[in-house]
Amino acid sequence: MDDDRAEPGALAPESLRRRRFMARGAVASLAAAGGAAALPGAVQAATSDNLPPNVPRWMREPGAGFLNPAYGVPSPFEQHVLRKLPDTPPPFPTATRTPLQSLFGTITPNGLFFERHHAGVPPIDPAQHRLMVHGLVERPLLLDMKALLRFPAVSRSHFIECSGNSMAEFKAPGKGSVQDIHGLISGAEWTGVRLADVLAEAGLLPSARWVLAEGADAAAMTRSVPLAKALDDALLVYGQNGEMLRPEQGYPLRLLLPGFEGNMSIKWLRRLKVGDAPFHTREETAKYTDLMPDGTARLFTFPMGVKSVITAPSARQVLEGHGFREITGLAWSGHGRITRVDVSVDGGRHWGAAALDGPVQSRALTRFRFPWVWTGQEAILQSRGVDEGGNVQPTRSALLASDGQNSAYHYNAIQSWQVASNGEVGNVHV
Ligand SMILES: Nc1nc2c(c(=O)[nH]1)N[C@H]1C(S)=C(S)[C@@H](COP(=O)(O)O)O[C@H]1N2
Ligand SMILES: [Mo]
């Protein structure tokens, strides 16, 4: 079972993959017992006093008691795992991106959740924050946070993706990392109140069709939400991964519209006005519309299309050593659950089904994994998501054929990472 003898880019059958992987483990333990070395993963000679067979420094004396007793922070050895501004940041900071290449599973730690704000982060005192519900309702409401916290709550995992995520890929292949190119997506377990319950408390009038949501930031961000979405799975959230929302995610209250373009999940939510028609705010007329090749603009393109991206190996990483490695990434769809992710290591000629970590949840990040043996040959890695609505993530050329290159939003094409024979990974358009 020598990895170097595997065919270039071969997709090994399940039984073979399993046996090869187990053989590796056996070799490593053999080597540990003083046997053969020089295999990937095999035990190397000690180069520091802290490596076996020595007793490491941190076992010879007690640790520092409590590092951060009141609120923990990551290990100092993880200080490179950070959110990131664009390489050429605009004069006013507008967005930070999630380090997708460094994260595991599907939950984005709160300190690494991407941010997009149009007028900065308002320093809201929750005691002085209210949610007004008015318009086509029987009983207008003015709710404080205490009142909202007394509603029945739900906790659900959902992604938020800025519809401008990956927008530069409509043009030339970006030179940055997966974080730079696709980092305007994050996932969290949100806790809050069903919008339907709050609207029921106010009592909808028969002519109610749309709900205007307004944020309490200096942008007074406003978007129109179709009533069907408001009554389906929309949430008013105050919890993010088990603690109160972070200020940059909308503390103390945000609207969450699962699967819809991130812009509509209004942060710092202060007002809901029920109407009988969309409100045609700036953010759904001048902005967040999609200019088509024929010069018309698509309005109200709410759900984010099915999408996936390989996070490792990904651009700017370098593969060290040949042999087994897991290709892994994230898939999501604004239309529901991910049902399948296919992976190709030869630029889309052959595909194999990736394993999905369960439980796969609707409109949530889904982790996929695909075993691969890299023999040192050039390879082009791709992933293709499919959702329960039967939507298939398009190739870049298919997306450009339907949407053209004028649109800045809703880029969901298949991402291609090129692995060079020296192990360097880069972004290519195929
Ligand atoms: N009030 C308000 N809500 C807002 C925004 C804003 O600037 N103000 N930005 C929107 C945009 S464009 C996106 S993509 C998401 C980003 O959410 P996040 O910053 O929690 O990642 O919030 C949306 N909600
Ligand atoms: Mo956005």
Automatic annotation (TrEMBL):
PROSITE patterns: TAT. GO terms for molecular function: heme binding; molybdenum ion binding; molybdopterin cofactor binding; sulfite dehydrogenase activity; sulfite oxidase activity. The keyword Oxidoreductase applies. Residues 118-280 form the Oxidoreductase molybdopterin-binding domain. Its cofactor is Mo-molybdopterin. GO terms for biological process: sulfur compound metabolic process. The keyword Oxidoreductase applies. Residues 303-415 form the Moybdenum cofactor oxidoreductase dimerisation domain. Pfam families: Mo-co_dimer, Oxidored_molyb. Its EC number is 1.8.2.1. Keywords: Metal-binding, Molybdenum, Oxidoreductase. This is Sulfite dehydrogenase. It comes from Pseudoduganella lutea. The gene is soxC.
